[in-house]
Design goal:
The chain is an all-alpha fold. The protein has one domain. Helices cover about 75% and strands about 0% of the residues. It is globular and about 55 Å long. It starts with 14 loop residues before the first helix and ends in a 23-residue tail after the last helix.
Length: about 260
């Protein structure tokens, strides 16, 4: 992914602009958002039930079921943003097309998070200033890794749709998802952190209410992550900017001469 030096001010990354676009487009596709959210909510009952019996089994089932469903929801959000006749079936088409790669992304994410959480727990139990510094460092890396995770599944969609391709042509490999996610997080950490806080602020209360999670909360993060990745790609000149209906439309004057 290359940075375009001729970025215009209109494509500058802004957290509030991304949120505004995500909320408006999710509202315009509210029926699809609710259907996708309810599907994810129902599917989450399987790993939760299994986790009550065995935590490793619950985590495994989440990776095999919820990760591809979330990727499918991102694919549905992509169709909404592209205005490409989105339908509920797009969730399951994305689930089927992206299944194995989505599971691969989930495996890498789970491994990274497990290592970081283990390090924080290990150093948190040990006394001394050195252990405190080590735990603080692990915490910073943990948050930064979460910033990377915001982009992983949307970048998987971008590779599947041919938006991001290999230098020699052809579909981008799975490792490009993590490489490009790292580059985007490094390039705009404040932007990604602001979106991470927004997703947490919206999702946590909805998860507590349960009903809100079933209606919109389970799928809404996919719309935000997809919108953020789309804005990053626009910012870097990979795809053209979307028209903003809130901006004034410039009237073009046609002149005819005899």
């Amino acid at each position: 992914m290359e940075n375009n030096a001729a970025e215009s001010a209109s494509t500058r990354l802004k957290v509030l602009r991304t949120i505004r676009f995500a909320v408006r487009e999710a509202w315009d596709a509210l029926g699809l958002l609710c259907a996708a959210s309810f599907t994810l909510f129902l599917a989450a009952s399987v790993p939760i039930f299994l986790a009550l019996r065995s935590i490793p089994l619950g985590i495994l089932s989440a990776g095999l079921l919820l990760a591809p469903l979330f990727a499918g929801t991102c694919y549905l959000a992509h169709k909404v943003f592209e205005h490409d006749e989105p339908a509920y079936g797009d969730l399951w088409r994305g689930f089927r097309r992206l299944y194995f790669r989505a599971v691969g992304v989930a495996a890498v994410q789970a491994f990274g998070l497990a290592v970081l959480v283990s390090n924080m727990a290990f150093y948190g139990r040990r006394p001394g200033f050195g252990s405190l510094l080590a735990m603080t460092g692990a915490l910073y890396v943990f948050v930064f890794f979460l910033l990377n995770c915001l982009y992983h599944y949307p970048l998987l969609i971008a590779a599947e749709e041919g938006i991001i391709r290999r230098e020699g042509g052809g579909k981008a490999r799975l490792r490009a998802v993590f490489k490009n996610g790292l580059l985007l997080a490094i390039a705009s950490p404040g932007y990604a952190f602001g979106l991470l806080l927004f997703v947490a602020a919206v999702t946590i209360p909805l998860a507590i209410s349960a009903v809100g999670m079933a209606l919109v909360g389970a799928a809404f993060p996919a719309f935000v992550c997809m919108r953020a990745t789309r804005d990053q790609l626009i910012h870097r000149g990979v795809i053209p900017p979307d028209p903003d209906p809130d901006e004034p439309v410039t009237d073009e004057v046609w002149k005819m001469r005899g």
